[in-house]
Amino acid sequence: MNQKEVVVVIGAGGIGQAIGRRQGTGRTVLLADLNEQTLDNVAETLTSAGHAVETHYVDVSVRESVHALADAAAAFGDVVNVVHTAGVSPVQAPPAAILAVDLVGTALVLEEFGRVIARGGAGLVVSSMAGHMIPALDPAQDEALAHTPADELRQLPFLSEDAVPNSGAAYAIAKRANQLRVQAAAVEWGDRGARVNSISPGIIITPLALDEMSGPGAAGYQAMIEQSAAGRAGTTDEIAAAAAFLLGRNGAFVTGSDLLIDGGVIAAIRAGRIQLSLGT
Fold first, then answer.
1. From CA 40, how far away is CA 197, in angstroms rounded?
2. Choice among 4, 57, 175, 221 that is catalytic
3. pLDDT in tens, 219-240
4. Contact (Cβ atoms closer than 8 angstroms) between residue 118 and residue 69
5. CA 82, CA 242: separation in Å to the nearest integer?
6. Would you say the pTM of this structure is higher than 0.90?
7. How many helices (H) and strands (E) would you count in the chain?
8. 171 given a catalytic annotation
9. CB–CB of 87/47 below 8 Å?
């Protein structure tokens, strides 16, 4: 029986790479992404740094694809970490695509990897501070976002095309849903002796963030940076350090939680120092 420890990293962007480097030492890193060229490039980088890397194509918006990835991970060994970073941002996609990838995709990952995560293992979903930006939802909506089966999420009336008018709104509600799904999934993962949490990064310098910061919302991003307590953007290494705590032994009593890592942006919004717009 293969007893190798496997770290699954879904999404080969800057945050996924940083967490993979930190968690992958002495383990097999199973790197999954939609873009096969990106997969090859990142796998080469990690391999040249001494990591054992396998790659797998995945479309997180399709259950069969996520199911196949979970099976592949379990075939390599004990799935001790699952790190889900895949997503699209408001400047990159229309509302329907954001809901399919960022909302339904996360729900599928939690469901499918909840059946293969090893006892003592831990999962991490990379959400966003955007999930903390919108006002509180109706309790019935919170309940639906947390517990509706992934394949039925898009049929919820408050996620209809008319109800979610733009990509900014779609992104914010998807990220709020990520936090709610993780809290709900922690109960079932706990039945397997495993944990799962989410982190909500603020402005972290990655290619995705640079796309956003050069788009229509550039002035808003600059204002968030300038008015935050930190007064700067964050780095992928800072996110990886927080991830290491939540995925490792020191975080063994933490599950079903969301860690906001935004340099104080949400605090500044709630203090009225930043005027928020979710439109695109």
1. 28
2. 175
3. 888 889 999 999 999 999 999 9
4. no
5. 15
6. yes
7. 11, 7
8. yes
9. no
